[in-house]
Structures are given as structure tokens and as C-alpha cells.
Write a structure and sequence with these properties.
The chain is an all-alpha fold and 311 residues long. The protein is built from 13 helices and 2 strands. Strands 1-2 form a two-stranded antiparallel sheet. The longest helix is centred in the N-terminal third of the chain and has 50 residues.
Length: 311
């Protein structure tokens, strides 16, 4: 058995090839970082640094005019005994419990309706999506007029159908939150309708044809074909809706300002009041951290539940 020794020319070319590969690796690395760096810098300056600062501020007693004094977990202990925070926490859960299922039902229903080949379907899709891009202030002003207890069209219609004492809506501590949920659902359903439409258009038509040939009616096709195929979209919509529901702020601020009383006070507005109205930025940061962990916890539970469903 004989071995062939590498020629001197081949031995000399090996270091050259290694240097070329090294230069190519460095070039590719620099090229990759050139694409990543602008986005990472923006993320670091606008998200990462503020979040880290928020966690630090939550452990201090700080207002905008003084220095931050370290207090440890005192702010979180104060939150546990704060009646206003407990009310805002319960109101946030109440809002989410109403808003999430109503928005899913409304947006999915719209998507199913507008997924058909109808005349003018593009116009109706645009009209359904338009409230989502409309100014929150304009929406709140219009709906406040509609919900007016004495002169609003909604109560006029209720009186016309025989309801002598219609709800006070935004002036009632019992009906204010349901009224806000109605407006929020009306505003958000167009956006989530677009997501459901995208999911519906990926469902193979052959499945519907096979189910129809097996004698399945419209409801059975929806339950056994549409919903299983929409599971990834439904999961994404549910997660996004949950996070956005817990962070609700602008619509309630403009429509009710947390009233009447504290019936519509939510965590985000509690944070706003403590930070920007009462100048307690350390305490407000602690409430923001609590909201952050609440969103993280619920999202993790949703991921675990979705994973078990897919097993």
C-alpha cells in the first residue's frame, strides 16, 4: 500500500485557502451585522433601555424633580394594600373577559361573511377596517353622543321599543364598562377580521368539497374544517387580543377618564395617574412592572395550553 504525498504547491495553497475562508467569514459577519445593527440600536434605545430603567425605577422612590431613593420592594408591598390598584386590576380583568370573546366572535363572523365572492366585497372590507385607523378622540366623541342618556340615539331606540328606563351607559357605574367594551370591539374587529381573512384563504377548498360530499352541513363544515384549520390564526389573535386588552388605556381615558367613580379605572390609567398626575414615578413603575408580569404570565399560559392542544 502506497501513500501519495501532497505536492509543495498544494501545501502552499492550503494557508491561502484558509485565509480566504477567514476573510469570507469576516465579510459575511460584518454584512449580517450591518443589516441587524440599525434595528438592534433602535430596539436597544427605544425598548431595552427603557425597560431596564423601568425595573430599576420600580425599586426606588423617585419623582421627576428629585433623586431616586432606593426602597427595594416597598412599592410592590404598597401595591398589595392599595385599594385603587385592586379595583383597577379587577376592572382590567373584567374588560378583558368581555372584550376578547366579543371581538373574536365579531371579527371571525365578519371574516366568514366577507370571505365570499360578493359584489362590492372590497368596499365592505375597507369599511369594516376603517374604524381601526380612525382617531381615538373622534371615536370617543361620537360614541359619547350616541350613549347620551337623555338625547342619545341608542336610548331613543330603546324607549321606542318599550324600555321606559334605559341604562345611563357612561354615567352609570354598572353600564360604563360594557359600553366601553362595545366601542372597543367595534373599533378592533376590523383589524382582526383581516387576520382571520388571511387564515381563511389558506384553508384548502378540497376539504370543504369532501365534507360537502359526506353530507356535512354549513355548521359541521365550520366546526370540523374551518376551526381546525384556523387554529394557528386563532392562537395568534387570542394572544394579541389578550395583551392589548390588558394594556387598554386611550379609549377609556377619552371616554370616561376612569369614571364614574372608579368603575372603568384600569391598570394603565392607574399608572398614568400615579406617574404623570401625582408625580410618583417609582410607584407608577412598580405598577407597570406588575402589568408586565401579568401579560407575560397569561401569554405563557396560552402557549402551554396551545401546545397541549396540538399534542
Amino acid at each position: 500500500m502506497t501513500t501519495t504525498a501532497a505536492s509543495p504547491k498544494a501545501r502552499r495553497s492550503e494557508p491561502t485557502q484558509r485565509r480566504r475562508r477567514s476573510k469570507l467569514t469576516v465579510r459575511n459577519t460584518l454584512l449580517g451585522w450591518s443589516f441587524i445593527l440599525p434595528n438592534f440600536v433602535g430596539f436597544a434605545l427605544l425598548t431595552l433601555v427603557p425597560v431596564v430603567t423601568l425595573f430599576y425605577m420600580s425599586l426606588t422612590n423617585w419623582n421627576i424633580f428629585g433623586t431616586a431613593n432606593w426602597v427595594g420592594l416597598a412599592n410592590f408591598e404598597r401595591l398589595l394594600g392599595d385599594g385603587s390598584f385592586r379595583i383597577s386590576f379587577v376592572n382590567t380583568l373584567y374588560y378583558a373577559a368581555l372584550h376578547i370573546p366579543l371581538t373574536i366572535i365579531a371579527s371571525l363572523g365578519l371574516a366568514l361573511l366577507l370571505n365570499n365572492k360578493l359584489r362590492g366585497v372590497a368596499f365592505f372590507r375597507t369599511a369594516a377596517f376603517f374604524p381601526y385607523i380612525t382617531s381615538i378622540v373622534a371615536i370617543a366623541v361620537v360614541w359619547n353622543l350616541l350613549f347620551s342618556p337623555e338625547y342619545g340615539p341608542i336610548n331613543e331606540i330603546l324607549r321606542a321599543v318599550g324600555i321606559a328606563n334605559p341604562p345611563g351607559w357612561l354615567t352609570s357605574s354598572e353600564w360604563a364598562m360594557p359600553a366601553v367594551v362595545v366601542v372597543s370591539t367595534w373599533r378592533d374587529m376590523g383589524y382582526y377580521m383581516i387576520l382571520f381573512l388571511a387564515g381563511l384563504q389558506t384553508v384548502p377548498r378540497e376539504l370543504y368539497e369532501a365534507a360537502r360530499m359526506d353530507g356535512a352541513n354549513a355548521w359541521e363544515r365550520f366546526v370540523n374544517v374551518t376551526l381546525p384549520c384556523l387554529r394557528p390564526t386563532m392562537f395568534f389573535v387570542t394572544v394579541m387580543l389578550t395583551i392589548n386588552s390588558f394594556k387598554i388605556f386611550d379609549l377609556i381615558l377619552v371616554m370616561t377618564e376612569g369614571g364614574p367613580g372608579q368603575s372603568t379605572l384600569v391598570i394603565s390609567q392607574f399608572i398614568y395617574r400615579k406617574g404623570f398626575e401625582e408625580n410618583q414615578f417609582g410607584y407608577a413603575s412598580a405598577a407597570a412592572v406588575a402589568l408586565f408580569f401579568l401579560c407575560i404570565l397569561v401569554t405563557i399560559l396560552q402557549f402551554i395550553w396551545n401546545k397541549r392542544r396540538n399534542v
